[in-house]
Structure formats: C-alpha cells, structure tokens
Amino acid sequence: VLAIGLAKALAEDWPQLLGPRADGTSTEVGLLSAWPSGGPKVIWKKQIGTGYSAPSICDGRLVLFHRVGNEQIVEALDAKTAKPIWRHVSPTRYRDPFGYNNGPRCTPLLTKKHCFTFGAEGALLCLDVKTGKPVWQRKTAEEFQVPEAFFGVGASPVIEGNLLIVMVGGQPNSTIVAFNKDTGKVAWQNAGRDTWQGKPSTGWPGEPLVRWRGTEKLASYATPTLATIHGRRTLLSLTRQGLVSLEPKTGKVNFSRWFRARINESVNAANPIVLGNRVFCSAAYYGVGSFLLDIGRDGKSFTEVWSTNKRRKADRRLDPVLGIHW
C-alpha cells in the first residue's frame, strides 16, 4: 500500500531516485520534526503491486512502477488526490532466481516531457509523461549481450543533457550505455573488458591481475552519480567490478578502481558519494569495506586518501556528510 500523509511534502518535485539532486536532500522547510499523536493525517492511499521501485513526482504527477501478476505497470496519478491520469501495461516473465520479489527494482525518471523506466528484465521504456503513450523502447538484455544478474536489473537511469545514461551491463564493453533521451538511439557505450583486463584486483591478496573470461556480470545495483569535480562534469559508476569514472558526453573512461568481493555471489549496491573533489564508495559484502579517493585536477587520476584495508579504526575520521552514509 502506498500512503501519502503530509501535503506540504508534495511541494517540491522528486523526479528520480533520491530526489532532484540525486542525493536524498530536499529544500523543503517547515517539515515536522516528530509525528503528531496518532500519526500524520492520511491524505490518500492506494493498493499497489510488488516491486522495490520508489514513486517519482514531477509537475503534480506521481508515477508508480510496479507489478501485478504477470503485468508490469507504469501509472501516473494526481499527487494530491491519487486520481488516475494514465496507465501503461506490458507483460513480464521475470522470476528472481533467489526467490525474492519479482517486481521492478528501478525508480522512474521524470522530465517535463518523458517518463523513463527500466524493468527487472532490462526493458528500457520511454513514455510521454502527459499521456503515457510509448515514445521508444530498448530491450537491453538482448541487444547488449547482458549476462543474467543475480537479482534482476536494479540501477536506475540518470540524465545528463540530452543523454539518458543507463548501467546496462552488456558484454564485452557495454557496462554503461548512453541513449539519446528523445529517440532512444545509442550515443555511446563503454566500460567492461577493456577497462579491467590486466588491471590489479585492488584489495585482493597479492592483487592478481584481472583475467577477462567474457561471461562476467557487469552491472551492479548502484545508480550512477553525476557530479562536477574540478569544474568538469563527471559520471561515476560503481559497477560490479569497481568504480569507473567517465566523461558523460563521450563515454571516455577517465580512471577505474577495482572494488568487489572475492566471492562470486556478491554485488555492489551503494551509489558513489561525492563531496567536493572526493569520492566515497562502500560495500557491505564479505569485508570489502570502503575507500575515499581525492580526484586529481586532470580528472584522470586520483590519490587514495584511505581504504578500510589500509587504515586503523582510530583513523576513521569522516566529514559529517559522508558519515551519514557509512
């Protein structure tokens, strides 16, 4: 059940995962610091299907992405009243191999013109945000030779200029793919074999060199982060193999840093956190830990400030902004 309680919280658009700045922060003021006795007043509620997708809001439309039976549903409601605006339904056969929820994992991305969704099977869909009519669609799993992920597709799309940037996870070098957001045409694709082959497995005993087999899973569950670092727009993607920095306009790789568990049955799932010119990455799997990088002025190099493999517990001094994520 989706329930909306505080009408004041509807004032600011929340058009994508983690909000307008993709960092979980809001400019709203005057919000309650504690619930009133008996809880907040319920404005409306709606029964919905399965999935891990969060609702998105733009221009008074609240868009849901969920699953009922064998149907994948994208629907728009009036955010204040829950009155239906449009509904798009498509078939789905996805079954989670570990028995978890079979619904979509990714959150809708909304603009003034379009609604973008990325289904658990890899169906990338663009709808007219006002009418719900299809604009374009890509079947990424088939088109980009994507190995089956452990828990389906889980990294939400992001937008930079006229590009919709998606962690597709295709072999051999289509971990990240950028599409023209209006047409769905591929603008660039990069990261994968050529990024990691022969590079050291940082943090692994002896740091052996990566030997690419061609069957590796490439996508993670961490949504890419867009940031301005040293005055330069940068795309930071924590893929299954590790962190990759790319130029968002061209897809050119700036640098990479291996970061994953030694056990195969593992994933990366925490979005990179940017503070100034530094990038923080963390993982919960099997002692992988975390690291903080200081990005060089050229955008192509970095200095490792610390990692959990190299610092004492007493040295864990974090900026408060990073501390809340760790």
From TrEMBL:
Entries under InterPro entries matching the protein: PQQ_rpt_dom, Quinoprotein_ADH-like_sf, WD40/YVTN_repeat-like_dom_sf
Location of the Pyrrolo-quinoline quinone repeat domain: 71-303
Record Pfam families: PQQ_2
Signal peptide stretch: none
Full protein name: Pyrrolo-quinoline quinone repeat domain-containing protein
Organism: marine metagenome
Highest classification ranks of the organism: unclassified sequences, metagenomes, ecological metagenomes
